[in-house]
Amino acid sequence: MLFRPWPLPHEAGEALVSYLRDGRPCVGFREVFVSVLAPLRPLSPAAVVGVVGYACDRAGMQRVGPHRLRHTLASDLLRAGTPLAQIAPILRHASVATTAIYAKIDREALRALARPWPTTGGTA
């Protein structure tokens, strides 16, 4: 996979640098995140699900999966006025149509913007 720069909050960047300098074991592969138990290996998709679930448990909230985080990010960006064309590369989508699936529309916010349906004055 090609490296693509991705904006990170400052605190997340600091935590990542700290992990890479002080917490990540020396291994023979390039993946950033490594299992904590032997044999050391890159995190699998199932491990990522577990990490997100564990974080939910620690926060005292209902478990969600990594895709919920992607949906939430896309929806929050859309709600903040970010165009789908700018959200797609953040989620690493090749198509804006795929991003539209992730970025759920806030229907209540749209109701406030909707104009009443014009009436013709005729009978139905």
Describe this structure in words.
The chain has 124 residues and is an all-alpha fold. It has six helices and no strands. It has helices at residues 10-23, 45-59, 66-79, 84-90, 96-102, 107-113. It is elongated and about 75 Å long. It starts with 9 loop residues before the first helix and ends in an 11-residue tail after the last helix. The mean pLDDT is 84.
* Structural shape: elongated
Mean pLDDT: 84
- The assigned structural class equals mainly alpha
Distance between the termini: 59 Å
What integer value in Å does the Rg equal? 21 Å
- Helical content (DSSP H or I, runs of 4+): 40-55%
Order of helices and strands: HHHHHH
The profile of the biggest β sheet is:
none
Count of runs of 4 or more consecutive helical residues: 6
- Total E-strand runs: 0
